[in-house]
Design a protein that fits this description.
Length: about 250
Amino acid sequence: MQISETRRHKLRRRALTRRCWSVNGNDESLQDLRFIFEYEIYRFFKKEATYFWQRIDEKMLDSRAFPIYFPITVRKLTHEEISLKRTSLEDISFRPRLPLYAMVDNVRSLYNVGSIFRSSDGALIEKLFLVGFTPHPPRKEIDKTALGATTTVPWEYHKDPMAVVDRLKKEKIKICALELTTESRPYFELEKENFPLCIVVGNEIAGVSKEIIREADMAIEIPMFGNKQSLNVAVAYGIVVYDCVRLLTS
């Protein structure tokens, strides 16, 4: 295929304006392939250009010897593609879990509890403890926001939170209250040495109970920069638990 110099410059300008990137070089033996690929990308659809890209991909990565321009495209994954990444219900019990536990202390909202279940599933925590008057499954309101996570997250309900605290301490699991205290530090200052760890979140109004705070090994907080001094309990839990995942998997 022959492409005029004018056409080549148009393709290059189009590449630059579409936030494309290039690999610089001057290997003239590959110019035809480059032109074909550029032409197909911009004249037709990306699907038609795939064939040409496959022909030059390996040479480009090995030699980096010629300029090639292509769009950095982003698209939403289909449900089928997402499902390929999902751990099946049969396999999830065999996956190694993170040394991360959570305790939900006297949280009143069933929808918040369901959201905490869902975040716990995504983070693959070891176990979720529901204590005090925190509602527990089976409840349709919990299922509405949990979206099935009540069957994939190991959980227990206990009326007395201190019984759970004592049990965890005997198992050498540190207790970490997500609460504003005189000794709280930012959640992102946690270290790998702090694990295994149990994150405790509390009531939407009263927060974590004083009895648990007295027995806690540490306290963390989420820095706030506006007028409000706290976040929704399920939102706060999601922020902290996923930062723990980042720390443990880094």
